[in-house]
Design brief:
It is found in: Cell membrane. The protein is mainly α. About 75% of the residues lie in helices and about 0% in strands. The chain is flat.
């Protein structure tokens, strides 16, 4: 329970948690949560994946990398131009 020290709500939370324990809701949630986590992974067969299978994903990644680099360069040029334009207007 995350409450600050001497919080006026501490008693309400304690009563609420006690009520949840008495009705069995906390035990029920714990059983459901533990049941989901117990999966046997011993019989899973792994498939080897090479460059041929991942070439499309690699191409998409490289395309995005090239596009983002191009946009970054455009932003740098724009920032330089805008600073030059501001300095030019101050002089005139």
């Amino acid at each position: 329970m995350y409450l600050r020290k001497n919080s006026p709500y501490k008693e309400y939370f304690q009563k609420g948690i006690l009520l949840l324990k008495e009705t069995g809701i906390i035990n029920h949630e714990d059983k459901i949560r533990n049941r989901r986590n117990k999966k046997c992974l011993g019989m899973v067969k792994y498939i080897e994946i090479g460059l041929e299978e991942t070439s499309v994903a690699l191409e998409i990644f490289l395309f995005g990398l090239i596009c983002s680099t191009f946009i970054f360069i455009i932003e740098l040029i724009n920032a330089k131009f805008m600073s030059w334009l501001i300095e030019y207007r101050k002089q005139n």
